[in-house]
Amino acid sequence: MAKEIERAGIPVAHICSIITISQTVGANRIVPAVAIPHPLGNPRLPPEEEKEVRRNLLRKALAALQTPIEEQTVFS
C-alpha cells in the first residue's frame, strides 16, 4: 500500500520490523522498528523511557518523509 500512496505523490515512511520484507514489496522510505512483537515500543521499559523510544522512532519517520530520495532508502 505504501508504494501506491507514493505513486499518488504522497510520501510514505514505512516503519517495519523486517526490513527485507519492506524492500521486497517496494517501500521507498523504510524506518526500522523496535521488534516484531512490539514494533513501535518496548513495554519492558519504564513509561518515560518507552515514550522516548517512540518519540525517536517518530522523529526518524518524519525526517524520512522530508528527505528527497531516488531509490529505496533505509533510515537507521
Tag the structure with descriptive keywords.
single chain; 76 residues; alpha/beta; 3 strands; 43% helix; 13% strand
Written account of the structure:
It is a single chain. The radius of gyration is 13 Å and the shape is elongated. The chain has 3 helices and 3 strands; from the N terminus they run H-E-H-E-H-E. It starts with a helix and ends with a strand. A 3-stranded parallel sheet has the order 1-2-3, with helices on both faces. By secondary structure, the chain is an alpha/beta fold. Strand 1 (13-16), helix 2 (19-25) and strand 2 (29-32) form a beta-alpha-beta unit. The chain has one domain. 43% of the residues lie in helices and 13% in strands. The mean pLDDT is 94.
